[in-house]
Amino acid sequence: MQVNSSSLHHYVSPSRPIRKTSVNSNSIRPLSNTIVPIALLAGLAGGVAEMIWIAGYCAVTPLQGSEVLRQISLSAGLDFGSGLLAPICGIAIHLGLSVLLGLVFALSVWRLPVLRSSVVGSLLASCAVLCVIWAVNFLVVLPSLNPGFVHLMPYGVGLVSKLLFGVAMGWILYQGEHQGHRATIARAMSVA
Predict the structure, then answer these.
(1) CB 174 within 8 Å of CB 35
(2) Are 65 and 55 spatial neighbours (Cβ–Cβ below 8 Å)?
(3) Is 139 within 8 Å of 158 (Cβ atoms)?
(4) Do 157 and 65 meet the contact criterion of CB atoms below 8 Å apart?
(5) pLDDT confidence of residue 34
(6) For residue range 104-137, what is the model confidence (pLDDT) as tens digits?
(7) From CA 147, how far away is CA 140, in angstroms rounded?
(8) Which of 108, 149, 166, 179 could bridge to 126 as Cys pair (CB 3.0-4.6 Å)?
(9) Neighbour count for residue 124 (Cβ, 10 Å)
């Protein structure tokens, strides 16, 4: 095959410089299986952030944390009365759903590169999703499923708990994406 110089002129010319492409090690990678441990940790961190906020609220009001956990169990259809099993089950349900939420968020919404490219995008996306979850939960699902849970605390307290969940989850996911999952998990474990 013979190539003449006039046919190459279209592709390489002085007025049209050749662009060099390189792979930047800091560029956003497609999601892979390495995101799963980070997503689970992010969901767990969000659930724990919520629990700390609600525990703080309970510490300064007459509301008992055990009652919040009992209502979580009741919302799941488990009635243990006021025994010790109700709060333990409430914690297990809350943290289980938190981890599941972290995973679902990471494998769906988090797939959008624009959300993974900046900490602001990460935090805004996770907080927005958690606000929607709060609204659906407290304005649609819980009023029919367990009205007692809806009125345990003011709406603002519940909404702040979801925003804290979103901040914790978004931060962990962002750090995992940009710092590497092993470093993020090690750092998170050293804080705990």
Answers:
(1) no
(2) yes
(3) no
(4) no
(5) 76
(6) 999 999 888 888 888 999 999 999 999 999 999 9
(7) 10
(8) 166
(9) 14
The single residue listed with the structure tokens 């092993």 is 182
Q: What letter represents residue 151's amino acid?
A: H
pTM of the model: 0.77
Reading the block at residue 180, the tokens are 């590497």
**Locate tokens 């990471």: which residue?**
106
Helix residue ranges per DSSP H, the chain: 5-9, 35-60, 65-75, 85-107, 113-116, 119-136, 142-145, 147-150, 155-179, 181-191
Whole-number Å distance between alpha carbons of 104 and 126: 12
Residue written as token pair 């956003």: 28
In which region does residue 86 sit, left (phi positive, over 0), alpha (psi from -120 to 50) or beta (all else)?
alpha
Left (φ > 0), alpha (ψ -120 to 50) or beta: where does 69 sit? Answer: alpha
Write the DSSP assignment of 95-143 as a string of letters: HHHHHHHHHHHHHTGGGSHHHHS-HHHHHHHHHHHHHHHHHHIIIIIHH
Q: Which residue has the tokens 């710092």?
A: 179
